[in-house]
Each structure stands twice: as C-alpha cells, then as structure tokens.
Write a structure and sequence with these properties.
The protein is of the alpha/beta class. Helix content is about 45%, strand content about 10%. The protein has 3 domains: about 15-205, no CATH class; about 235-475, Alpha-Beta Barrel (Anaerobic Ribonucleotide-triphosphate Reductase Large Chain), CATH 3.20.70.20; about 480-740, Anaerobic Ribonucleotide-triphosphate Reductase Large Chain (Alpha-Beta Barrel). The strands form 6 sheets. Strands 11-2-3-4-5-8-17 form a 7-stranded mixed sheet. The longest helix is centred in the last third of the chain and has 29 residues, at about 555-580.
Length: about 750
C-alpha cells in the first residue's frame, strides 16, 4: 500500500443511523451537558442533508451547532465539536490514503510520502519496518480526545501533513510520532525507548515543540529552529551580507532579531568624507522590504525585529519608524523595534537627568573602543558607565545632549500606538550571562526571550582560485534558538515534571544536530553553544486550577518555587546528557564550569533541592547546552494544547476566534464555578503584580522571558513609566509588547512552542 493520489474505491457514506449512533456515543461522554435542544436540531440537520448524501456539509453543520452551545456555563461543548471534527478528519484521511481504518498502515504512509518527496527518506533508513510497526502499535487514537475544537482545528489547518494537492494525509497522533521519530533518529542506544517517551510527552499534551519543529519535522523542506539573531557589521559588505542571510533564514521559516547598534549614525563620515552617512533608517528600509518579499514558507510575511542602543544618535528616528504618521520615507511598518537600555539611562530617567547620544563610528575612531562592548558588571558600577562618562567628557567627541525623559516619552508613545519598542535591559542580561567568557549580548530576539552571545560576521577578502571566486569570512556568533514548552497545568497537576523534562531536553538537544541551517555562521554558533530554550505555557491555567489569585504574594512565591524546580531538573537533564554525549564546546571557563551560575542565583542549602550536589556534577561532567531555558510567547501551540499562552493572563473568559465565514467560541481552559473566580482579565490586573511574578521566575531562567505589559488605552504616562521602572528595578531582562486595549498586535509564529 502506498499513499495514493486518488482513492481506488468508492467512499462508504455513513447512514442516517450511523450519525445518530455517533452523536449518542459522543454525547454519552458528557452526561452533565443539557443535550435535548442540540439533538433535536441535529436530527433535523441529518434528515435534511443525509438524503442529499452531503455528509461533509452534514458533519460541518453538526459541528457548528455544537459550537453554538459553547458558553461560560457549558464550555464542554467544544469537546463535542472536537470529537465530530476528529471523526471528519479520520474519514478524510482514510479516503485520501485508501485505507479502511484510521491509524493503520503507518509504514506505508511514511514510505509513500517519502516517495513523493514530502517526508525525508532518512526516517526509513533510521527505522526498520518492524520498528515502525512497533511504533504504530503505540499510536493512541484516544489521545485525540484531549483536543478542544479550536486546538484540533488549528492543528489540522496548520501542521498536519498534506500532499502537493493539499489533501490531508496525516492524523494528529501520526504527526506526534513523526516528530518523535525524527528527533530521536540519531540516538545510538535506546532509540525506540526515547521515541516512545517523546511520543508520550507530545500525545499527552504535556509539552509542545516550536512551530518550525511542529510543522517541518520529518519533511524535506523548512528547518527546525524558531528564530535567529544577527549582529550587523558597520560596512556596506556586512550590511548586504546580513540582509542575504536574513532572507535565507526567513525563507525557511525563521524569525529574526537584528542588532543595528554598530552601524554609524546619520551625518557620520564615510572614508573621511564628512556628513555623508544616511544612518540606520535606510538599512531598516532594506530589511523591511526583505520581511515583505521573502515570506515564511508561503504562509506569512517574514518576521524581523531590529534593535538599537539608546545612546545611538539615530534613536529618535528609530523610535518613530513604526508610527502611523509622519514622513513615510522614514517608516518601516513591517519591522518590530526594540531598544537596548543600560542601567544608567534608567537612573537618568528616574532622576530627570540628561542623556548623551553618540555616533558609534566616531566613538570607535576617537576613543579606540566600542561603547556597546561594555556593560556594568555590578549594579551601580562597572565598565559601561565608566566608558560612557569618558565619552561624555571627551572634548573632541561629537555628542548630542537631550533630557533622558524625552527619549522615554518617545519610547512610551510608540508602545501605546504600536505596542513596541520592546525593552532590553542589557546590563542585567550580561551580568547573568553564563557564557560571558566568550562574548557579549547586544540585544534579544524577535520575541525577547533569547539572550545569547553575539558578534558580527566580517568579510576579510575575496579572491579567484582555479576559476572559482572564494570569499573569506570571520564568522561571528549568529544566534540560533531551539524552543519547546512545558504545559504547566497538565504536567504539574499530573506530577509528570520529573519524567517530562529529561526527554524534552534530549529532544531540544537533538534539534541542533538534525537542523539544516542555510547560514553557515549560524550553524557554527549552534554547535558551539548548543543553545536551547525550554519554556512554559499555561501559567494562568495552573493558577486557576490551584486556586491562587494572580494579584497575590502567593502567586509570586509559587512562581519562585515552581521555576526553581523546573530549572533544577533542566540543568540536571543537560548535565546527564553531557555525561553521555559530552558538554558543549565553550563550557570551559563558563559560569557553569566555575560555579558562578549557582552562586549568582544563591542556590544552596536553604533550598529543598540538592543544588550543591548538582553544582558538583556540573563541574565534573559539564552541561550539554550552554543556554538552557527561555519562556517564549507560544500562543498558537498553547491553543493546540488547550491551555493559556506562556506566562500571560487571559484576555477574556469567553471570546470568539474569527474565521473566514464563521466564528469559533472559545472559553478559558477548565472554566467552571470554581476556576472562574481566578480568571481575571489581563487588562483588569494590576501589572505590578505581574512584574513581581516575572521577577520571581526570571532569576531561575538563564535566558529571558517573553513578558507583556497590559494597559488600557487611557493609561497615564506616569503610570506606564512606573511600570517600566518597576520592571527594571526588579531585574527583568526584557519586556515584550505593551498591549493596549486600543492596539492590535501581531504574534510571532516562529516562537510559538
């Protein structure tokens, strides 16, 4: 049997009685639902449409009628609709694959799609037919019943494999198994065991992988990493080379963060010619064109964020670049922007002091160093403020003095109008960087959760050899992030955290060796640090189930304790992997190796966890991954898993997802008479409580957290400023969107995990 392009037999159309039995079986699983009205309407739908043999329309109408009953009092109707959709998908796949029973003929599916060039042939090389048959026996169709309607609908529309004619050929449990088989194919021992463990983790919705891995694992196209960070060199060659690299990564489904802080400002000199540089905005326009013209696998336009230091002379035009009014020649509406902020700037904002702007090229030329290469090693003191003051006091260095609060006003104006710029607190990030022995972190990624060493790639020379043009480059650290997330509500409540994290870390680590990245310096960096980003979602869902109010000290203490536990098991899992496979190449001299990682976070005897033993194990065996944890926004995949996004509060208890010709009603997960009191809307929550929660978890996360601030459209500037000052003082590394009730914001698909 192969996957046929046309069915070889007439499809068996379900009878009137078949539909009646199906509905009775589905509804019997929800005895608390009031079903009389639904059954009356459903019987009329079946009677009307069955005579026309229009069973596809019939099933759709039964689903829509079930969705019409979803509300705050009876949210379980979403599962009725999901069961009906599952039945429809199974019928569709059976017809398209010419099989009589769903979740059978798994080997033939793999072989057929490999022959069509959709699946990689490596799967067939890695696993014997007997092993594939053994794994088919593990597939559990009952796990499809865990999906809400919108979760299953999202999964089928965006992630399940289709042929070149867009016909559905893969079912949810088969997608999970293909992901597991793909990520474990190079395991030398216990491979089948690890596949089963990975499938267990995915099929139970204890975790999700990032969108690129979810969609592309096992396939011949796309790559598996979520997003990347590039550092642009201050040269024409460097700028255009970066643009090309960014285009290649965007084409394969990656989101980009781009640091522009090394590029000279407008009016700077070029090769001694005074006042000829046009600054960063024209290069941002180039990137904007790339974002629009090079989309992500034909699914959506490219997603690119750009970052600039708050002392850069182009900062005001940079902050205005997304505004909806003004000179369109200076606007880049399709880019996201972020600001790199040192402690001393926030101090000047708070004290209403002055701030100085510089051209990075002039600083390099006159001072002999790059200001962006320094940070304050301790709170209130360090090399950055020393170098900054040297620049301020140098009589020959061109500079511009402005009130610091005026820059902050421009930042907040942009945030209330467009949601950005994002905030990157560079001193705290670099103080807590476990790999500061190997470099510097200049900015974060598109979704503000990745913080890893960066440096620019520099083209040294080009020459001709044997009729071939050879380009010699010094590769920089081109950041790669590989993400997946724990479903907190399901995993913590079922007591599966300790079992889940080791297999999740192994899956993430294997992405590094499997991924084909079209930019070589990114591939080199990926192998150098073996960085991953284990994150979480479902925080509000978990609080509601635990009966903990968001605005409480209890929530902050719970975050502290839970994320310490997640950190402990993540580091332990990476250490055991290092013992098995070796530590990452840059381990020697890192905070992991010296023990500073544990000292900075004050892990020790006061904890319930045995940090002292773990520290000794890490010093002895190393860790497999130089960067280990990061909390991404993961809005899409949290929908699939039926939980709340990331560490965010919900917007509404009941809302509708707009589709082309209908709406899907959605309720907060596990909404009932007990949990409803704990589902307070994000816009009604005092954001200082959210900041305190995030500060509690941030100290356990070696990278950063995609953290949104929620404000009403009439928020006063003073109140928003106080939120930013609070976030900085509580040592948050980044903040993501300022989500106003008046602004519509785009999500990053790539970081969904």
């Amino acid at each position: 049997m192969t996957v046929h392009t046309k069915p070889e037999h007439k499809e068996n159309v379900p009878s009137f009685q078949d539909y009646q039995i199906l509905l009775e079986n589905v509804l019997s699983e929800f005895p608390k639902l009031e079903t009389k009205a639904y059954l009356q309407k459903a019987t009329k739908i079946i009677d009307k449409l069955h005579h026309n043999s229009n069973h596809h329309e019939l099933t759709n109408q039964l689903i829509l009628e079930a969705l019409n009953h979803v509300d705050e009092l009876e949210p379980s109707w979403t599962y009725v609709a999901s069961r009906l959709l599952s039945q429809k998908l199974q019928q569709e796949v059976c017809r398209n694959r010419n099989i009589t029973k769903p979740y059978t003929e798994f080997y033939s599916l793999i072989k057929g799609l490999a022959e069509q060039g959709i699946y990689q042939t490596e799967i067939l090389k890695a696993y014997t037919p007997n092993e594939i048959n053994e794994l088919e026996a593990v597939l559990d169709p009952q796990k499809d019943f865990l999906f809400t309607y919108i979760g299953l609908k999202t999964l089928s529309d965006r992630y399940l494999t289709r042929d070149h004619n867009k016909r559905l050929l893969e079912l949810p449990q088969e997608r999970f198994m293909i992901i597991a088989m793909t990520l474990m194919q190079k395991e030398e021992t216990n491979r089948i065991h690890y596949v089963k463990e990975a499938y267990w983790a995915l099929s139970n919705l204890y975790m999700t992988v990032a969108t690129p891995t979810f969609a592309n694992a096992g396939k011949t196209y796309g790559q598996l990493s979520s997003c990347f960070i590039d550092t642009v060199d201050d040269s024409l060659q460097g700028i255009y080379d970066s643009n090309t690299d960014i285009a290649n990564l965007s084409k394969s489904g990656g989101g980009l963060g781009v640091y522009l802080g090394k590029i000279r400002s407008r009016g700077s000199d070029i090769r001694g010619f005074k006042g000829v540089s046009s600054g960063v905005i024209p290069w941002m326009k180039q990137l904007n064109n790339t974002a629009v013209s090079v989309d992500q696998l034909g699914q959506r336009k490219g997603a690119i964020s750009v970052y600039l230091d708050v002392w850069h002379k182009d900062i005001f035009s940079f902050l205005d670049s997304k505004l909806n009014n003004g000179d369109e020649r200076m606007r880049t509406h399709d880019l996201f922007n972020g600001v790199c902020i040192p402690d001393i700037f926030m101090e000047q904002v708070e004290n209403r002091g002055d701030w100085y702007l510089f051209d990075p090229h002039e600083v390099r030329r006159l001072m002999g160093y790059s200001l962006e290469d320094y940070y304050d090693e301790k709170v209130g003191t360090g090399s950055f403020r020393q170098k900054y003051k040297e620049c301020v006091n140098h009589p020959d260095l061109p500079k511009e003095k402005v009130p610091a609060i005026e820059i902050m006003k421009a930042i907040m104006k942009g945030q209330l109008e467009t949601g950005s710029p994002f905030m990157f607190y560079r001193d705290e990030v670099n103080r807590m960087n476990p790999n500061s022995h190997k470099g510097m972190i200049y900015c974060t990624n598109l979704c503000t959760e990745i913080t890893q060493n960066q440096s620019a790639t520099v083209t040294k020379k080009q020459y001709v050899e044997d009729g071939t043009i050879v380009t010699v480059k010094t590769p920089g650290d081109f950041v790669v992030c590989n993400l997946s997330s724990i479903n907190l509500a399901r995993t913590v409540r079922s007591g599966q955290l300790e079992r889940l994290i080791p297999i999740q870390v192994r899956m993430l680590d294997n992405v590094i060796d499997l991924n084909e990245i079209p930019v070589l310096q990114a591939k080199i960096t990926n192998e150098k640090y073996r960085a991953v980003g284990l994150g979480t979602f479902g925080w509000h869902h978990l609080l509601a189930l635990e009966g903990i109010k968001w605005e409480s000290n209890e929530a902050a203490l719970y975050a502290d304790k839970l994320y310490e536990k997640i950190a402990f098991h993540s580091i332990q899992a990476s250490c055991l992997l290092a013992k098995e496979k070796g530590s990452y190449p840059a381990f020697e001299g890192s905070d992991w190796q010296t023990g500073d990682y544990f000292h900075k976070r004050k892990y020790g005897a006061s904890s319930e966890l045995d940090w002292n033993t773990l520290q000794k194990q890490v010093a002895n065996y190393g860790v497999r991954n130089g960067y280990l944890m990061a909390v991404a926004p993961n809005a899409t995949t949290s929908i699939i898993a039926g939980s709340t996004a990331s560490i965010d509060p919900i917007f509404l208890k009941v809302y509708s997802e707009e589709k082309k010709d209908y709406k899907i009603p959605v309720t907060a997960p596990d909404l009932n008479a007990e949990t409803t009191w704990y589902y307070k809307s994000a816009y009604q929550i005092n954001q200082h409580w959210s900041i305190s929660q995030n500060a509690a978890r941030q100290k356990h996360i070696d990278q950063a957290i995609s953290f949104n601030l929620y404000v009403t459209n009439n928020v006063r500037a003073k109140a928003l400023l106080e939120l930013h000052l609070d976030a900085w003082k509580q040592k948050l590394k980044t903040t993501y969107y300022v989500r106003s009730t008046s602004s519509e914001l785009e999500e990053c698909e790539s970081c969904s995990s």
